[in-house]
């Protein structure tokens, strides 16, 4: 898989959104350029061969903070996509959201931690993180 054993999407999640908002505020292309480099590197690092974002703690060793990271990353990737549209960003957002709905949802429509499935760890944190991806995909 394309994701690594020790990395997390922690830092990337906030920086992407911040750089996109800075670009909106002052229209400085260097912010978008920096965000694009970070987004592309993060996608190469955290996405699997099907363009679904993962955390290294999956499927069964994530704590409630770790389960939030990729949802926030996807939300901010969507924000970057709204400032600087990119087919790769759209593909990753849509692939993650589609896989969540098809492979990571239980009979009660609760959403789990491993967006590629099968559904395993399910709690408020995993559900809200997956919802970030579903909401992001509606705007693509």
UniProtKB/TrEMBL annotation:
GO terms for biological process: carbohydrate metabolic process. InterPro entries: 6-hairpin_glycosidase_sf (IPR008928), Glyco_hydro_76 (IPR005198), MUG_Protein (IPR053169). Gene3D superfamilies: 1.50.10.20. SUPFAM superfamilies: Six-hairpin glycosidases (SSF48208). It holds the Pfam family Glyco_hydro_76. This is Unnamed protein product. It comes from Aspergillus oryzae (Yellow koji mold).
């Amino acid at each position: 898989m394309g994701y690594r054993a020790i990395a997390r999407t922690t830092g990337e999640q906030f920086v992407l959104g911040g750089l996109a908002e800075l670009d909106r505020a002052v229209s400085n292309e260097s912010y978008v350029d920096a965000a694009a480099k970070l987004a592309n590197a993060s996608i190469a690092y955290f996405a699997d061969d099907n363009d679904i974002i993962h955390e290294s703690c999956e499927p069964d060793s994530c704590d409630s903070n770790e389960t939030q990271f990729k949802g926030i990353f996807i939300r901010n990737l969507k924000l970057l996509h709204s400032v600087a549209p990119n087919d790769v960003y759209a593909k990753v957002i849509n692939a993650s959201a589609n896989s969540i709905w098809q492979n990571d949802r239980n009979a009660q429509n609760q959403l789990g931690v491993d967006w590629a499935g099968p559904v395993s760890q399910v709690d408020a944190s995993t559900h809200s993180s997956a919802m970030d991806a579903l909401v992001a995909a509606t705007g693509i």
